TrEMBL record:
The keyword Hydrolase applies. It comes from Fructobacillus pseudoficulneus. This is Archaeal fructose-1,6-bisphosphatase related enzyme of inositol monophosphatase family. Keywords: Hydrolase, Magnesium, Metal-binding. GO terms for biological process: inositol metabolic process; signal transduction. The lineage of its organism: Bacteria, Bacillati, Bacillota, Bacilli, Lactobacillales. Its cofactor is Mg(2+). One of its GO terms (molecular function) is metal ion binding.
């Protein structure tokens, strides 16, 4: 496997950004045409559509053209998931926020990420209806379309923070979510990891807590760490990018105060 230089990473970033912009344009044009909706795992809230599977197949095919060494962790039909993070591991979420996509027609995203030997390397999140592609990585910086994103500036205390929390886990009464909802200045429920991350990147929120599957977390982690956010579990255990994690992505002060509240 050939080592990728910064120039090569920039080229891959530009290519994937262009591809996702094209996919977003197609979705905005044909969003509800020939849409077929099913459920997964016997859960009536866990939706999947033909757009999910078509987007994933398209992305798998195109990524293999630019990276023949690619391994994949993807949401739909994930039979060949790698057992380790060695080499080039690509994460794909072909429609993030499928419930929003089907029932609201907004606040959904497509997410892709590249990790090299376990290191967060490149990430892309397209906020489809806003035509915004968040992209980049530690070697390149983070951008929205062609505009460089500012590093996180306001390291707010929790009582000054707007948190994005998992609505399902709040409704289920999970204590850590209730504690943080009560302690924060305000909380929001979005229903899409990609849209939640985009609000952090635009500094419209200070923290985001949810249990995230690998494809929910991967791209957001790359860009959040690039911008200076803490991306950790609340107990400080290492992130396992091949399984689900309960993760808080936040400014340093918000993270520290959240951990203290959860432990008390």
């Amino acid at each position: 496997m050939t080592e990728w230089t910064t120039d090569k990473l920039a080229q891959v970033d530009q290519t994937m950004t262009r591809w996702l912009a094209d996919l977003g344009r197609q979705l905005r044009t044909n969003q509800q045409e020939d849409l077929h909706v099913q459920t997964k795992g016997g859960d009536f809230r866990n939706l999947v559509t033909n757009v999910d599977t078509e987007n994933q197949a398209w992305l798998l095919e195109h990524i293999q053209m630019i990276d023949p060494d690619a391994h994949f962790v993807s949401e739909e039909g994930d039979d060949a998931r790698p057992e380790t993070m060695a080499g080039h591991v690509w994460f794909i979420d072909p429609i993030d926020g499928t419930m929003n996509f089907v029932h609201e027609g907004t606040d959904f995203a497509i997410m892709v990420a590249l990790y090299v030997d376990g290191q967060p390397t490149l990430g892309w999140i397209i906020k489809v209806m806003a035509n915004q592609v968040f992209h980049g990585g530690p070697a390149l910086g983070a951008f929205v379309n062609d505009q460089r994103l500012a590093p996180v500036a306001n390291d707010l205390a929790l009582q000054e923070a707007v948190l994005i929390l998992s609505g399902r886990r709040l409704v289920a009464g999970e204590m850590i979510y209730q504690k943080l909802a009560e302690a924060a200045l305000a909380y929001r429920v979005v229903g899409s990891a990609g849209i939640s991350f985009s609000r952090l990147f635009l500094q419209q929120a200070t923290g985001y807590l949810s249990k995230l599957s690998p494809w929910d977390l991967a791209a957001g982690r790359v860009l959040a760490e690039t911008l200076g956010y803490v991306v950790k579990t609340l107990d400080g255990s290492p992130l396992n990018m091949l399984s689900s994690n309960t993760v808080l992505i936040a400014t340093t002060k918000t993270y520290r105060e959240s951990v203290k509240i959860v432990k008390d």
